[in-house]
Design a protein that fits this description.
The complex is a heterodimer of chains A (376) and B (434). Chain A is an alpha+beta fold and 376 residues long. Chain A has 3 domains: 2-35; 39-128, no CATH class; 135-375, MetI-like fold. Chain A has helices at 2-35, 133-140, 142-174, 180-188, 195-206, 211-218, 234-262, 266-274, 279-307, 311-317, 325-333, 341-375, and strands spanning 36-45, 54-59, 63-75, 81-92, 98-104, 108-109, 118-121, 125-130. In chain A, the strands form 2 sheets. A 5-stranded antiparallel β-sheet of chain A has the order 5-4-3-7-6, with no helix packed on it. The mean pLDDT of chain A is 88. Chain B has helices spanning 3-23, 39-49, 64-77, 92-97, 105-114, 119-124, 166-180, 193-206, 216-229, 244-249, 259-268, 303-313, 316-326, 342-356, 373-389, 394-412; strands spanning 28-33, 56-61, 82-88, 136-141, 143-148, 185-186, 254-258, 273-276, 285-287, 290-295, 360-362. Classes of the chains: A alpha+beta (376), B alpha/beta (434).
Chain lengths: 376, 434
């Protein structure tokens, strides 16, 4: 009996460990990044050694007077010797009192290691403190608003279209007309293509010297190529992104819908037919209600993916003029741009919270309908 | 459109980095570089390094962030595999402030005994100190204009393409628009456009890069950009990253970009393209030299071999090879440029004309911002997007970004750099907008 009590937990253990390592740990790290700031303050030492007692500390950018210096020649594993300087400095700390002590050369900027009499504090030991600065920076960034609205707009445009298309595609596959399995292969092609490649492909179609313009010009519909991708044509850029996303990701929804369709017992449909239900009525009253659980899964999946739309937007629009939440996350994280993982972490948290909220909404909305069906 | 490709490449580079400790033999010298981290450039760099006789050099291309992390980790463990570090000037402040590099003063003296290394760049390599040579200048590049021969017929009458002003460029672009019906001037807005603003437009109109960021001259400059120039810039510029592609396809006839990013056009069709200096404004002809340097991390396994590689990279023959193959210019005097292919020679002439123009204002890459060096680029880009694309009021948008800029300068303690007048302590804007 004792053992049976623990068995379920033992069985759960591997997945719990997996979740803890790959989700819980990174999430707490991200939370810490988002809401703490790594301030730095330089500890002054009683002697010219990193492990000696602290005699005071100084804020970054403090100007200090160099009173004394000491050169220690460190012999490196590669055989070279390297002079390391320690300076005995005096400066004013945050409380306004004068403090003195030894600092290592790496913590200060000094013009000449051997002769300069002043230096400036440039680094120190990390001090973590709680802050809402990063959150504020995200909220006040002028791109934040457009990133949210564009992401939501894309979601609203893409998801309904994908669901209608996916259900039609799934019904075509289910219909068992001749060659319907051929469609499966055609539909599945975009599944094997990465989002970046999909973006570049659609860019190549709509760019100024792209396939579409070449076609229209050579067919005589246009005299000069029409520039779809430009800041004045926001609607066109959104349309191209929507087309690329629908082309690329509808088959994922279709796969889920097909598996849901296959789970519907044939008897129900046959019974419907016996009672004279047409195709539309069977779809409306039998197939769609029974598909609800798979649609729910697909809906949640697609919505979460919609918040991650990234490469397609970058490839088509360059990412500066049309921007989405995940692009902003990367802009702040990128070492070549803001190089600020803290604000990126706030963005990541923001994306997670709205994804969660929408998923919860879907689950509640679909469940209440199920219950109302049961009650009826 | 190439951002994600570069992401992918940096991932590959990272995988390569991880596998380096396994591959590297004791007698190979590892040369890690943020330059030439694109596959074909890396191949050419390897071919040049094959000429080094003091051992086998393993050239590893890397993105900046992963390279800094790697060097940091090696410093913590006390021993490392990387022997030579090649990077743009902007990467070195981080390496210097974390005290990861040897002082190369002696090596520089040895090299200077043989060749004359450009003094301005030697000084940059000291990072504001006067006794610590963090890097030895390796090679330089800059940004110029390029045009297809077909564009020259639209050049306003009596205008010398080698001494353009911004107004004349705008007029030229307008002519092309009126005659061809298409906007034929291209700017790499998805690429290094921030350098266009920092090193060319701002210095030409305001004489500075940051101190006069929201001055009346800057407002007039932004008005010029928004009303006189942008309407005739190919609107698809927002997705251009490398200008060689739209130049070769004919989407644009005149373009501004980094010399290395224009090079493929000059390589493929040397007879069709001309290169010329960037235009001048009321304050002068702003231009931005880009300097790459070579350093040695103190964790190298073989300091002497590392020094030998640096000596090799500064030899006139190697410098000439780098110019021909990779499009970066020498930092030493006396490199033979007579045997350059036609396209490369055209570019070299434009670079020289730009640097030696009488009204030239050399504008350096931001100095002293450390790990936050990328943030200043975003500030310039934001100002552009807010004013030219979103149509915000010029002064309001410049003031808002000026406040962010001042905060950045204060927090990093960065002193003013050329062309702004030198400062004691953090660089101060004339009016911070706060």
């Amino acid at each position: 009996m004792q053992r049976a009590k623990w068995t379920p937990y033992l069985l759960l253990l591997p997945s719990l460990i997996y979740l803890a390592i790959f989700f819980l740990y990174p999430m707490t790290q991200a939370f810490q990044l988002a809401f703490t700031r790594e301030g730095q303050s330089l500890n002054l030492r009683a002697e010219a050694a990193a492990d000696s007692a602290v005699t005071g500390n100084l804020a970054l950018q403090t100007e200090v007077r160099v009173i004394e210096r000491q050169q220690i020649d460190e012999v490196l594993p590669n055989g070279a010797t390297r002079p390391i300087f320690w300076y005995y400095v005096s400066g004013t700390d945050a409380n306004g009192s004068t403090v003195e002590g030894w600092v290592n050369q790496r913590s200060v900027f000094i013009e000449n290691r051997r002769t300069s009499e002043t230096a400036r504090v440039t680094s120190g030991e990390a001090v973590r403190e709680w802050t809402f600065d990063h959150l504020n920076r995200m909220l006040t960034d002028f791109r934040f608003g457009t990133a949210v609205s564009t992401t939501l707009l894309l979601m609203v445009l893409i998801i309904p279209a994908q669901f209608v298309l996916a259900i039609i595609m799934a019904l075509v596959l289910q219909s068992q007309i001749r060659g319907s399995s051929l469609f499966l292969y055609i539909y599945a092609i975009p599944l094997g293509i990465s989002d970046l490649v999909a973006g570049i492909l659609w860019f190549a179609i709509f760019t100024q010297r792209g396939f579409l313009n070449s076609l229209l010009v050579s067919a005589g519909f246009l005299d000069l190529p029409f520039i779809f991708i430009q800041a004045d044509h926001m609607a066109w850029m959104i349309t191209i992104i929507v087309l690329a996303e629908i082309w690329r990701a509808t088959s994922i929804v279709m796969v889920i819908v097909v598996s849901g369709l296959q789970a519907i017992p044939r008897d129900y449909l046959e019974a419907g037919e016996v009672f004279g239900a047409g195709l539309w009525q069977r779809l409306r009253y039998i197939i769609l209600p029974l598909l609800k659980p798979s649609l729910q899964v697909a809906l949640i999946l697609r919505t979460i993916l919609a918040f991650q739309v990234f490469a397609v937007v970058i490839a088509i629009t360059g990412g500066d003029i049309v921007t989405v939440l995940s692009n902003e996350t990367f802009r702040w994280y990128d070492p070549g741009r803001f190089n600020n993982p803290s604000v990126a972490a706030v963005y990541a948290g923001f994306i997670m919270i709205i994804s969660l909220a929408i998923s919860l909404f879907y689950m509640r909305a679909v469940r209440s309908q199920e219950e109302s069906v049961k009650a009826a | 459109m190439n951002t994600k490709i570069r992401l992918l490449l940096s991932l590959i580079a990272l995988v390569m980095l991880v596998s380096v400790p396994v591959l590297a033999q004791d007698d190979t010298i590892t040369f890690i570089s943020t330059q030439f981290n694109v596959v074909e450039e890396g191949e050419r760099a390897r071919a040049i390094l094959a000429g080094f006789e003091g051992g086998t050099v393993e050239f590893v291309g890397s993105e900046e962030g992963p390279m800094i992390d790697l060097l940091r980790a090696e410093a913590q463990s006390g021993q490392g595999v990387q022997d030579v570090v090649g990077a743009l000037h902007g990467t070195f402040p981080t390496l210097a402030s974390e005290d990861l590099l040897f002082d190369l003063t002696d090596l520089l003296a040895e090299i200077e005994a043989e060749y004359d290394v450009a003094d301005a760049y030697v000084e940059l390599g000291r990072m504001g100190t006067d006794d610590y040579q963090y890097y030895i200048p390796w090679m330089q590049a800059t940004f110029t204009m390029a045009a297809h021969n077909d564009a020259l017929q639209y050049l306003p009458e009596g205008v010398d393409v080698n001494a353009l002003t911004w107004e004349q460029l705008a007029e030229w672009a307008e002519n092309m628009y009126n005659e061809t019906g298409e906007a034929k001037l291209g700017l790499p807005v998805a690429g290094l456009f921030h350098r266009f603003l920092q090193g060319y437009l701002f210095p030409s109109f305001t004489g500075g890069m940051v101190t006069r960021f929201n001055s009346a001259d800057a407002v007039e400059m932004m008005r010029f950009l928004r009303d006189d120039l942008w309407p005739y810039v190919n609107p698809q510029s927002i997705s251009y990253e490398f200008m060689n592609e739209p130049l070769l396809s004919g989407e644009v006839l005149v373009a501004f970009d980094h010399v290395a990013r224009l090079k493929p056009a000059f390589d493929e069709q040397p007879e069709n393209f001309i290169a010329f200096p960037a235009p001048a404004g009321p304050a002068g002809r702003g231009f931005m030299p880009v300097i790459a340097g070579l350093g040695i991390p103190f964790t190298t396994s073989d300091p002497e071999a590392a020094e030998a590689v640096i000596r090799f990279m500064l030899m006139p023959e190697t410098q000439a090879q780098v110019l021909t193959e990779l499009g970066f210019y020498p930092v030493i005097a006396g490199v033979d440029e007579s045997s350059l292919p036609e396209g490369a020679a055209r570019q070299a002439a434009a670079v020289a004309a730009q640097a030696t123009a009488e009204d030239a204002i050399p504008s350096l890459l931001p100095v002293g911002l450390g790990a936050r060096g990328g943030e200043i680029n975003q500030i310039f880009r934001n100002a552009f997007t807010r004013i030219v694309i979103d149509g915000e009021d010029i002064q309001t948008a410049l003031d808002a970004e000026a406040a962010t800029l001042q905060t950045l300068l204060n927090e990093t303690g960065a002193a003013c750099w050329a062309p702004d007048p030198a400062s004691e302590g953090p660089c101060q804007l004339e009016s911070s907008g706060m």
